[in-house]
Each structure stands twice: as C-alpha cells, then as structure tokens.
C-alpha cells in the first residue's frame, strides 16, 4: 500500500478480509507466516524499535488499567515513549487529554469510563508525541455524534500538519467524510487502491444538469446524438462519448436554461459492493500476495 505523505487512507473490506491482521502485521504485533512486511522503510517486526516510535496506533480498542484514572494511565504510557523526555511527560499527557476532550474526566477511574471515553483515551495515547504515521482501527467505535465530529476534526488536524493517517473502518460514510485515499481488501488481497475521488468517479461517467425545462433539454441532446434521460430536477447525460462543456454548449445553443451542471459520482457503498462482490470465488490461486509495504510517497 502506498500512502501519500499527509494523506488519510481508509482501509475497507468485509468482515474477515484481513484489515486488522494487516494492521497487526504492520505494527509488528504478529509475525507473518510467509512474505515480508515493511513499515516506514523498515522491515517488520525485526526493526520495530526504529519504526514504531514514529507511529501512533489504536488497534482493536484501548487497553488500560481499570483501577487507575485516565491521566495516570496516560502517564504510564508516556513513560514508555522513547521520543518523549521524562520532564515533558506531564505536559504531553495534559495536551493529549485536552485534544480528545477528556480534560474534565482525566482524574476519574478508567473502569467508570463509557465506551466512547475509553476510545478517546486510546486516541490520546496515540497522539502523545508528534508522529509520521497514525494508525486507527475503528476510531469512532462507541462515540456519539459529537465525539465522531471531534475525531474527524483530529484526523483533519493531523492531515494538515503533514501526518499520514491509516483508518480502518466499516462505516463507509465515515471513510467518505474523512479520507483522501482508499484501499479495499478482499480475502486478504488488495483489490483496489487510489484517491477517493478517482474511485468515486470510476463508474459510468455522467453529468447531472439542473434545468427548469428538462424535456426540452433531453430533446436537444438527443438531436445531437448525446444519450440523456430525465432525472429528479433535470436530466442525466451520459458522458461516455462527449465532454461536459459540449453538453452545456448544446443546451445553451438550443435555448435551454441551465441552472447547474455537475458530474455524477458513484457512492462509496456502490464502489465497495462492486469491488468485493464481483468475484465471489476470491483471487485466483496464483495471485497470492507475498509483500506488504507501508511507505510514504510524495503527493
């Protein structure tokens, strides 16, 4: 997987497709039975000590001591951060708690935290020091709408600061709202990857034209051998053999009022379904992957 520097990459796939296993291999939590794994230019898990200090991660939910407060738990996590000086741990913990909205509950026992609060604390642990890469496995799990918006904001801040973010999620709408790039896994194999815009535009190209005179628009376009049909609020024009500028020019020439013209985009749910259900039998036997790479490449 190629992760452009500063990109937010959404990892999608059906249950059992290998998303969490992929993340665990990338982070050196499990050793692959065959093949190679590389993270930020370092072979994993042998070079974990060189790569992981630059990676923040929240995988399969946070795990903290229930009898300690959120602050006390984070102080113990901070003490193990190789890039964080001992004198700066308390300030770093305070800043991380503030960033995820837990300052007010920082001194409460972890066992009294809601699922959403536990998720926030795990995210705070991943953000204790500046990172090159942040890996989030289902980061909005258990969060209410307000918490979900806050996590979106944090992901946006990370991207703006040049941090690459890998988000694994089954919430397609969340991926569509936060990610710039997408990789789709199916039965352990990457079946598609690229920018979100490119994947959403991968369906049949069409232009949606808003006009108060839709029937005249369809008639004008068909006279010019341009496939078009009525659609809510206007017409849908097939762009397979023409360009959007030509469509608008044709309508104006025939005196049809054009209020708006925009390209139709395939929803992420449709793209996901097409990629993961096209081949019910999975990849061919000789298409077995043997190399997994997570690296930063220029935008």
TrEMBL record:
<dbReference type="Pfam" id="PF00005">
    <property type="entry name" value="ABC_tran"/>
</dbReference>
<feature type="region of interest" description="Disordered">
    <location>
        <begin position="277"/>
        <end position="299"/>
    </location>
</feature>
<comment type="similarity">
    <text>Belongs to the ABC transporter superfamily.</text>
</comment>
<dbReference type="GO" id="GO:0005524">
    <property type="term" value="F:ATP binding"/>
</dbReference>
<dbReference type="InterPro" id="IPR027417">
    <property type="entry name" value="P-loop_NTPase"/>
</dbReference>
<dbReference type="InterPro" id="IPR003439">
    <property type="entry name" value="ABC_transporter-like_ATP-bd"/>
</dbReference>
<keyword id="KW-0813">Transport</keyword>
<keyword id="KW-0547">Nucleotide-binding</keyword>
<dbReference type="GO" id="GO:0016887">
    <property type="term" value="F:ATP hydrolysis activity"/>
</dbReference>
<feature type="compositionally biased region" description="Basic and acidic residues">
    <location>
        <begin position="288"/>
        <end position="299"/>
    </location>
</feature>
<feature type="domain" description="ABC transporter">
    <location>
        <begin position="1"/>
        <end position="212"/>
    </location>
</feature>
<protein>
    <submittedName>
        <fullName>ABC transporter ATP-binding protein</fullName>
    </submittedName>
</protein>
<dbReference type="InterPro" id="IPR017871">
    <property type="entry name" value="ABC_transporter-like_CS"/>
</dbReference>
<keyword id="KW-0067">ATP-binding</keyword>
<dbReference type="InterPro" id="IPR003593">
    <property type="entry name" value="AAA+_ATPase"/>
</dbReference>
